[in-house]
Amino acid sequence: MLKLDGKHSYLRALEPSDLDFLYQLENNTDNWELSGTQTPYSKAVLKFYLENSHRDIYEVKQLRLCICNKSHVQIGLIDLFDFDPKNKRAGLGIIINNEKDRNVGFGTEAIAICCDYAFSTLGLHQIYANILEDNGHSTKVFEKLGFLKVGVKKDWILTGSQFKNEVLYQKFKP
């Protein structure tokens, strides 16, 4: 089993027992703006997803890992997506489920662990992240971890009746 340890948390492969956590997280409409989701997911669809989550990143171009605290409680998910081995890059996305687990370092640690894995094990040259311009906390975290702001996608995300800008960040292999 893939397990990547940090001081306060660790990343691990998704397990069948994560179904209820995934169902809650994916169907929380507060998260839909970040994930681009527009419709709810059934447990049957998520169960099928979990049954296929063992597939190799080289095949499905994505790796989703569960972020757990040291008490082994699921607190979020982190993804490498749009994996492009030819150009040695991938996108990175993260969500911490509960407000109480945000702004206490879990996200920062998970991103650092995931980047180390992507650079050292997958041999990536760069990782990118798309962050809404009004998401100041994520901006601070990614900049703290060495991601550079390289562009702004104007009116990129429609939220309700208002468009928001999305900022593109990149981090290159040290």
Can you walk through the features of this model?
- Pfam families: Acetyltransf_3 (PF13302).
- This protein is of the alpha+beta class.
- The protein has a single domain, classed as Gcn5-related N-acetyltransferase (GNAT) (Aminopeptidase).
- 28% of the residues lie in helices and 37% in strands.
- It has helices spanning 19-26, 32-35, 43-51, 57-60, 106-120, 136-144, and strands at 3-5, 9-13, 63-69, 74-84, 89-96, 126-132, 148-159, 162-172.
- Strands 1-2-3-4-5-6-8-7 form an eight-stranded mixed beta sheet.
- Strand 1 (3-5) and strand 2 form a beta hairpin.
- Helix 1 crosses helix 3 (43-51).
- The protein is globular, with a radius of gyration of 16 Å.
- The two termini are 27 Å apart.
Write the layout of secondary structure elements.
Blueprint lengths: L2 E3 L3 E5 L5 H8 L5 H4 L7 H9 L5 H4 L2 E7 L4 E11 L4 E8 L9 H15 L5 E7 L3 H9 L3 E12 L2 E11 L2
